[in-house]
């Protein structure tokens, strides 16, 4: 039987983990929710990075999983977008978490979906499937990103319309955001696409690239231009592999923290 989450005594602070408190939970559908938690004052990360979060187990060892931070680096709280895998060791329990409950937070954020790993450019395309949107919610709400790029384009591909987490917020160009100026919000472009139901934009991201729908709302070229465009990819292994190969064919080079390039990738999950 699973332990109740609320038992704070089961949680142990350590050099690698702090114990935080959940502040809000928003359910998007039966397999997707957003979780906010307190942020330790000394916790620093770069928008787009991921961190371990988790719960204690009966054997006393913490059960941890990698999660992209969905809130920007300046936010006072930390926000995460989570899948629910019914037989998943962590999310079968995490789906029941409530405000006030304790939760483990790792102390070492890391990742490649950061602007440091990209060369300067004019447009930033962030291509995601499923929970791969999470790091891009962090970057799209970071004012620094709008200092670096003229247009910030968030592309989210999902199977069903109800899987479009954050849809209203993105459609409103992040209305009411406490950090972004109006001029910055106007430069955010949102391209949601649904693959298995009818919706105003249907089809896989690759199809939108090929038929030009990905670029329709942009004031720039109606295709990828390696000199000006920068691309971040976050999704399944197959999605990343296909897009990385396509970008390389178009003359884009992959970047890393120690060698900035024209595109960067990260898996949204292992499997
Ligand atoms: C770098 C990195 C960043 C990640 N960021 C996030 C994030 O922001 N949000 C998030 O929900 N998960 C994220 N994950 C996945 C996360 O670490 C866990 O796998 C997930 O929370 C499920 O945990 P679990 O213990 O319940 O099941 P697991 O045993 O970890 O997973 C069971 C199976 O479920 C499937 N699965 C797991 N995660 C997902 C997912 N996100 N979308 C679709 N299928 C999935 C896989 O097929 C996997 O084999 C990330 C993983 C990596 C490597």
Polypeptide structure, described:
With 271 residues, the protein is an alpha/beta fold. The protein has two domains: 8-106, Elongation Factor Tu (Ef-tu), domain 3 (Beta Barrel); 115-267, Rossmann fold (3-Layer(aba) Sandwich), CATH 3.40.50.80. It is 17% helix and 29% strand. It has helices at 91-94, 134-140, 143-148, 167-171, 182-185, 205-211, 237-249, and strands spanning 17-29, 32-37, 50-56, 62-68, 78-83, 102-106, 123-129, 151-158, 188-194, 229-235, 263-267. The strands form two sheets. The chain has a six-stranded antiparallel beta sheet with strand order 4-3-6-1-2-5, with no helix packed on it. The longest helix is centred in the last third of the chain and has 13 residues, at 237-249. The chain is globular, with a radius of gyration of 19 Å. The protein starts with 16 loop residues before the first strand and ends with a strand. The model has no long low-confidence stretch (mean pLDDT 96). The structure holds flavin-adenine dinucleotide. The site of flavin-adenine dinucleotide (FAD) has 24 residues, from β4, β5, α1 and β11.
């Amino acid at each position: 039987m699973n332990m109740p989450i609320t038992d704070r005594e089961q949680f142990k602070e350590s050099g690698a983990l702090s114990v935080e408190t959940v502040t809000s939970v928003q359910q998007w559908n039966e397999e997707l929710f957003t979780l906010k938690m307190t942020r330790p004052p000394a916790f620093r990360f770069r928008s787009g990075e991921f961190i371990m979060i988790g719960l204690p187990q009966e054997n006393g060892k913490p059960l941890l999983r990698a999660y992209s931070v969905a809130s920007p680096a300046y936010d006072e709280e930390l926000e995460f977008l989570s899948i629910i895998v019914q037989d998943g060791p962590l999310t079968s329990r995490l789906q029941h978490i409530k405000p006030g409950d304790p939760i483990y937070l790792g102390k070492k954020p890391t990742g490649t979906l950061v602007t440091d790993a990209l060369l300067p450019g004019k447009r930033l395309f962030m291509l995601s499937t499923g929970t791969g949107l999470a790091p891009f919610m962090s970057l799209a709400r970071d004012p620094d990103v709008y200092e670096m790029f003229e247009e910030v384009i968030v592309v989210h591909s999902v199977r069903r319309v109800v899987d479009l987490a954050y849809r209203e917020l993105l459609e409103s160009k992040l209305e009411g955001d406490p950090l972004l100026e109006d001029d910055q919000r106007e430069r955010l472009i949102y391209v949601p696409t649904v693959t298995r139901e009818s919706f105003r934009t249907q089809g896989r991201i690759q199809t939108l690239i090929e038929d030009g729908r990905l670029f329709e709302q942009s004031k720039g070229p109606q295709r990828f231009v390696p000199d000006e465009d920068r691309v971040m990819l976050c999704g399944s292994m197959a999605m990343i592999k296909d897009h990385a190969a396509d970008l390389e064919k178009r003359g884009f080079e992959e970047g890393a923290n120690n060698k900035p390039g024209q595109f960067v990738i990260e898996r949204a999950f292992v499997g």
